[in-house]
Amino acid sequence: MKKPDRYATGRTAQLDLDGKILHLPIIEGSEGERAIDIRSLRADSGFITLDSGYTNTGSCFSEITYLDGEQGILNYRGYDIKELAERCTFVEVAYLLLHSSLPTREELDHFRHLLGQYALIHEDMIHFFDHFPPNATPMSILSSMVNVLCNFYPEMGEDPLQDIDVTSARLISKIRTIASFSYKKSMGHPLVYPKADLSYCGNFLNMMFDSPVRPYVVRPEVVVTLNKLLILHADHEQNCSTSTVRIVGSAGVNLYASISAGINALWGPLHGGANEAVIKMLETIHKDKDNLKKYIAKAKDRNDPFRLSGFGHRVYKTYDPRALILKEACDETLKVLNVNDPLLDIAREIEEIALNDQYFIERNLYPNVDFYSGIIYRAIGIPTNMFTVMFALGRLPGWIAHWKEMQEDPMRRIGRPRQIYIGPRRRPFVPIDQRSP
Ligand code: CMC
Predict the structure, then answer these.
(1) CATH code for 274-380?
(2) Angle at the Cα of 53 (from 389 to 408), degrees rounded to 5?
(3) 23 catalytic, yes or no?
(4) Ligand 1 center to residue 272 CA distance, Å?
(5) Nearest CA among 435, 386, 429, 398 for reference residue 74
(6) pTM of the model
(7) CA of residue 311 to ligand 1 center, whole Å
(8) Average pLDDT over residues 271-281
(9) Superfamily holding 73-266+386-408
(10) Atom 20 in ligand 1: which residue has the minimum CA distance?
C-alpha cells in the first residue's frame, strides 16, 4: 500500500473545543474524497466522535474499490465495473481485486490452474453435510463449512500472509464446491464433483444442475450471465460484511474464520439477504397484485416495518450502477432462455411507481443491486434460498482482498470503536435479600 502520508493535503480543519483550538489534518484520496483526520482527537482533547451506523467514518485507507454514491460510479482498482462486467470473466476480476492489476495470459492460466487444483473439498467434510437438519439454511451451512476449512487446511501458520495466494485460490475454488454440495444435499441428490475441463462458472452450474438422470448441458449464455452477476457483486468497499471481515481479521484471526464472519453479516435482509427478500416480496405482491399500491403505501408508512426490498442504499443517492447493468442483463437473459416471469412485470411496475413518487424521490431511493438479480437467478434455475449464497460467491474475492490489504497495512490496529455510556452511574451493591422487585 502507498504511504498514507502522501494523501495529507497540508491543510487543516480548526475545531474550537471550549476555547482550545485544534488543527485537524485534512486528507484527500486519489479521487478527491476528503476526510478530517481525527486520529489524535481523544489524546489531544479527551473528546471522541459519535457516528452511529458509521455514516461519516472512514475506517481505513484502501486501494481496492472507488465508489461515488452521488454520481453512481463504481470502479475496481480503477476500472469501471460496466467495462469489467462486459469484457472480463469473474476469475479475471477476482485476480484483479487480489493482485491490483488485470492478469496477463500467463498469470490468468496460473490462477485458473490453482482454482482447478483446489476445487475438491476433503471427503471428510462431506459427512458434515449429512448432519445439518433437513431445512438448514444454505447460508448457515456455508459459513460453518468455510469456518471449518481452517482445520482441514491449517497451513496458514503464524504469518497470516504466508501462502496467501494459495489460500485465496483454495477458498475461491472450494466455496463454489461447498455451495453446490449444500444444494445437492438439501435435495437429497448425489453430489456432482468439479471437472477440470469446465470454467469456474461452468463448473458451478454443472455441480448444481447435473444429475445421473438428466445430464446438464452448460449453456454459454448462462455462463456469461453468471460471470456478470458475480463480477458485479465482487466488491463494494466498506459495506457491512467487508467491514466485518476486516474487524474480525484485525483481532488476528485466520482468513477462513474472518470470511465465515463476513458470510454471516451478508446474510441479513438489509444487506445480501435482500436478494431473497425481494423475490419473497414480489411473490407476495403477485398473489395480491390488484393491491400493488397498498404495498407502496406500506413501504412509505413510518409505523409499518415493511420496506421495499431491493430499494435504497446507504451510499448511492442515485441509481445503483450495478442495478442498471442487471436490469438490462435480466431482460436479455429471460429473452435468451425464453422465460416469461410475471415477477419481472411486477418489479418493473414497482420501479415505475417508486421513481415517480415524492416519498422515494425526496429520499433518493432507487433500485439497488438486489432488485433484479433474483429474477435472473430464478431464470437460470437457482432456488431462492441460494440467492444470498450466490452473493457470497461473488463477494469472496473482495473480502479476501480487504483482509489481505488490512494485514499488509503498517497502521493496522485491532478494530475497537468507543461508545458514549448512558447507563446508571456508579451505585452501591445491594445484597440479594435487600433487593426490591
Ligand atoms: N423502502 C421504504 N423506505 C425506505 C427504504 C425502502 N427500501 N429504504 C430507506 N427508506 C427510507 C427510510 O425509512 C428513511 O425514511 P425517513 O427519513 O422518513 O425516516 C429514509 O429512507 C432513509 O433510510 P435509512 O434507513 O436511514 O437508510 P440507511 O442508509 O440506514 O439504510 C438500507 C440503507 C439499504 C438498509 C435501506 O435503504 C433498506 O432497508 N433497503 C431495503 C433493503 C435492501 O434492499 N438492502 C440491500 C442494500 S444493497 C446490497 C447490499 O448492500 O448488500
Answers:
(1) 1.10.230.10
(2) 65
(3) no
(4) 13
(5) 398
(6) 0.95
(7) 7
(8) 95
(9) Citrate Synthase, domain 1 (1.10.580.10)
(10) 363
How do residues 200-211 score in pLDDT, each as one tens digit?
A: 999 999 999 999
Would you list the domain boundaries of the chain? 4-58, 73-266+386-408, 274-380
Cell of 283: 411473490
Say which CATH topology domain 4-58 has. Rubrerythrin, domain 2 (2.20.28)
DSSP-derived secondary structure letter, 25: E
Query: Angle 264-394-156 (CA atoms, 0-180°, nearest 5)?
Result: 70
Q: Which of 210, 235, 320, 370 is catalytic?
A: 370
270 lines ligand 1 (CB under 6 A): yes
Q: Convert the pLDDT of each residue in 393-417 to its tens digit.
A: 999 999 999 999 999 998 899 999 9
Taking only the tens place, the pLDDT of each residue in 356-373 is: 999 999 999 999 999 999
Which residues sit opposite 65 in a β-bridge?
Answer: 76
- 364 is written with which cell numbers? 433518493
Q: Show the CA angle centred on residue 362, arms to residues 359 and 363, nearest 5°.
A: 85
272 touches ligand 1 (CB under 6 Å): yes
All three cell numbers of 363, joined, read 429520499
Catalytic residue among 210, 313, 320, 402: 313
Which residues touch 215 (CB under 8 Å, ≥6 apart)?
A: none
